[in-house]
Every structure is written in structure tokens, then in C-alpha cells.
């Protein structure tokens, strides 16, 4: 679904992404792992249009999407979440979800004067969809809570819910488990798996929790120094000497040979 060819992103003399070439297969839950500074989030930002590449190409199902703006990619079904959730804190969880779809009738001044019935009908439909999403994510009880007052893990679920308010095709999740307790992390994992299997979502996940990755992801892509170092199943990655040296640590190898 996504193909990255010889992608570079430089910040002055620093090569955050340095010739990365990789593919994310349609229908997969792909993990992107590696040490801090490997270029994972920068790669996400370039694919998602947040940053322009210095050079190289990004394709989505053979369409060249290199350098397209985030809102254009959003309309094509490419979405991303962030390590720190970006919610409208004073709005309720339901209202946060209802804000997501673009092109709503209430966005134009003309319709606020002459299209009130259409606006009301759209809002009823969006409210019903938002409630379905909250139920799917098992956070219906938070529908009327201000989004700024819920926990970090619940905010991650709400971010995932935003992707369900539009026709998402591929979702990039940046450290979805960061700061999330184990119970909520399991809930997030369940939701990702259901979206993948029941709705055909493709996911690419940056994450450091190897248990979380082992449950969800195949394949696993390892980045180091701005490029792809290895790719395989979680067991293959854990047994790869280059990966152990660059990311997992020699302690893992010694432990597994005892």
C-alpha cells in the first residue's frame, strides 16, 4: 500500500532519514521499531506530508504522493496519530469525534443562514456515528466528558476513534502505548486488531513495547541511522545479530543463549 524509495530528510548536516527504502503491505499491521534517533517519527512525518522530503519518493498504491499536504492525504485515507494526543480539551469526547469529517455544511456562512435543516441532519448523523465509535472503543461512558480531563490512555483511544469517523485506509500510529497502563494498552490493541480484521484498516505502528508488537504486528521493520536495517517476524528480528547490536542490546542475546 505504501512504498518508500530512497527517502532522505536532512536538517542541515543531520540526516534524520538517510536513504530509507521500505514497503507497508495492504492489510498488514506493520511495526516500525529502532533506537531513539533512528528516524522513525521523521519518516512518519514525511510520509504523512508534515515534512517535505529532501529527496526520494513516497507512493500509495502506485500513486506518487511525495510532498502532498496532510489535508490532501487525509482525503485519500492516509491518517496519522501523534505520540502526544492532540485533543480539543474543552470539548466533549463526542464533540471531538464529530469535528473530524471535513466538508460539513455548517462550515460555510451561507448554510448557517439558509441550510439549518441540512446542518441539523448532518449533526444527528455525526452524533450517531460518534456514539458508535465510542461504543466500539469501550469508552461510551466518556461521551460527555471534556476530552482534556480523561487519562492519557483514553486520549489515545479517542485519537484512534478519530480515524473511524472517516474512510481511513492506512493509519500511522506513533508510540500509541507511550504512558498507557497495561489494561488500556490491551484495549487499544484489541481495537487495532478489530479495525484491521473487520474493517480492513492497514496500520503502521511505531512502538517500543515488544510484547505489544509481538501480539499485533507482522512484519516488523527495524530502522537505524535513518534507513531500514532489517525486516521480518518478531522472532526473526529478536534473533538478528545486527538488530540486537543496534537496538535490542547484547543482554537479550546472552539471556536467550543461557
Automatic annotation (TrEMBL):
Organism from which the protein derives: Marinovum algicola
TM ranges: none
Domain ABC transporter: 2-250
CDD domains assigned to the protein according to its UniProt record, in alphabetical order: ABC_Mj1267_LivG_branched (cd03219)
Key word Transmembrane helix present: no
Protein name, UniProt field: Amino acid/amide ABC transporter ATP-binding protein 1, HAAT family
Pfam families assigned: ABC_tran, BCA_ABC_TP_C
MF (Gene Ontology): ATP binding; ATP hydrolysis activity
Top-level taxon of origin: Bacteria
GO CC term (a single one): plasma membrane
Entry keyword set: ATP-binding, Nucleotide-binding, Transport
Keyword field contains DNA repair: no
Amino acid at each position: 500500500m505504501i512504498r518508500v524509495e530512497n527517502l532522505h530528510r536532512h536538517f542541515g548536516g543531520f540526516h534524520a532519514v538517510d536513504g530509507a527504502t521500505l514497503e507497508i503491505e495492504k492489510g498488514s499491521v506493520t511495526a516500525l521499531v529502532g533506537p531513539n534517533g533512528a528516524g522513525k517519527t521523521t519518516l512518519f512525518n514525511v510520509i504523512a506530508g508534515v515534512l517535505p522530503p529532501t529527496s526520494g519518493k513516497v507512493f500509495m498504491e502506485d500513486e506518487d504522493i511525495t510532498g502532498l499536504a496532510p489535508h490532501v492525504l487525509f482525503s485519500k485515507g492516509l491518517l496519522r496519530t501523534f505520540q502526544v494526543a492532540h485533543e480539543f480539551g474543552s470539548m466533549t469526547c463526542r464533540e471531538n469525534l464529530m469535528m473530524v469529517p471535513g466538508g460539513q455544511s455548517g462550515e460555510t456562512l451561507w448554510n448557517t443562514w439558509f441550510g439549518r435543516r441540512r446542518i441539523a441532519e448532518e449533526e444527528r448523523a455525526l452524533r450517531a456515528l460518534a456514539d458508535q465509535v465510542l461504543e466500539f472503543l469501550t469508552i461510551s461512558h466518556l461521551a460527555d466528558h471534556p476530552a482534556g480531563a480523561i487519562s492519557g490512555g483514553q486520549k489515545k483511544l479517542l485519537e484512534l476513534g478519530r480515524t473511524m469517523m472517516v474512510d481511513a485506509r492506512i493509519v500511522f500510529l506513533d508510540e500509541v502505548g507511550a504512558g498507557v497502563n497495561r489494561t488500556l494498552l490491551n484495549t487499544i490493541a484489541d481495537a487495532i486488531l478489530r479495525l484491521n480484521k473487520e474493517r480492513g484498516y492497514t496500520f503502521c505502528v511505531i512502538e517500543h513495547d515488544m510484547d505489544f508488537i509481538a501480539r499485533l504486528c507482522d512484519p516488523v521493520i527495524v530502522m537505524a541511522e535513518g534507513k531500514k536495517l532489517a525486516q521480518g517476524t518478531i522472532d526473526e528480528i529478536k534473533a538478528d545479530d545486527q538488530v540486537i547490536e543496534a537496538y535490542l542490546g547484547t543482554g537479550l542475546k546472552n539471556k536467550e543463549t543461557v
